Amino acid sequence: MVEGYVLHSLAWRETSLIVEAFSQEEGRMGLVARGARRPRSAWRGLLQPFQPLLLRYASKGELRTLMAAEWRGGLPLLSGEALMAGFYLNELLLRLVPRQDPHPILFVAYEQALAALSQTEGLSHESSLIEPTLRQFECRLLRELGVAPEFAPSVVQAHPEARYGVRPHEGVHRLAGSDTGAAEAEGLWASGRALLALSGYDDGLSAFAQGLAEPELASQAKRLLRGLIRHHLGGADLMSREAARTLHHMRQANPHPRETT
Predict the structure, then answer these.
(1) DSSP bridge pairs for 191
(2) Which CATH class is domain 2-71?
(3) Do domains 2-71 and 80-252 have the same CATH topology?
(4) Mean pLDDT of the residues in the chain
(5) pLDDT at residue number 245
(6) Residues of the chain where predicted confidence (pLDDT) is lower than 70
(7) β-bridge mates for residue 64, sequence order
(8) Residues 173-190: pLDDT tens digits?
């Protein structure tokens, strides 16, 4: 059996599911879970996102047949902002990682991100932990896909207060003249200080979060990484981001909803 997570599932025929899973050995893969929607199926409450699983399947064609699944435990359920962040991670993997393309290092990064998100429950500084977790995973994802820029080349280290554009597939360049408007329009720019902070994405989460502690640096890092991801998605938006924005606006409009019984 292999370690894996459910990213998404769709109803298939009358009683089955097509499950998109992410495993350490084979990367993203499609599984047919026959009978998983039957009322008495042992898989009915098991094949859920963010739960550490052991999976066994028959390898035949692009869609494999799920033969067995077991919970391997060890991860609290996500809720609130952490749950929305988890769906964002899953959508990144679904949209950017091809099937049958193993990424064992990315699997570890995903598992670490889920573990970090699960530890934010009930903390007063919840959002301050969630955002660095997302930035760290975004950086690691881009690196594993082979499209991450070098965030801190020598010019950035020499002039950290300057502003820089980031061209996908080309790298970092100091902004000047007409370059500035285009980079700002696409969100593909950041200060040298923000780039230096991003360059520490393989440090521990606490150190990485500390580097992005200033709100302006955190904002620049988020805008830049989202711009890079949008570029590699062909300009498309992510559904999980739209849902998160809607939830945020609803909370701002009604920050203290009345309890109902």
Answers:
(1) 163
(2) mainly beta
(3) no
(4) 89
(5) 56
(6) 122-127, 178, 241-261
(7) 31
(8) 999 876 788 788 788 999
Q: Are 65 and 59 in contact (CB under 8 A)?
A: no
Q: Does domain 80-252 have CATH number 3.30.450.20?
A: no
Sorted by sequence, the CB contacts under 8 Å of residue 232 that are 6+ apart come out as 96, 142, 145, 147, 168
Evaluate whether 113 touches 89 at the Cβ level (below 8 Å): yes
Strand 171-174 relative to strand 53-58: parallel, antiparallel, unpaired? unpaired
Say if residues 21 and 34 touch (Cβ distance below 8 Å).
no
Structural domain boundaries in the chain: 2-71, 80-252
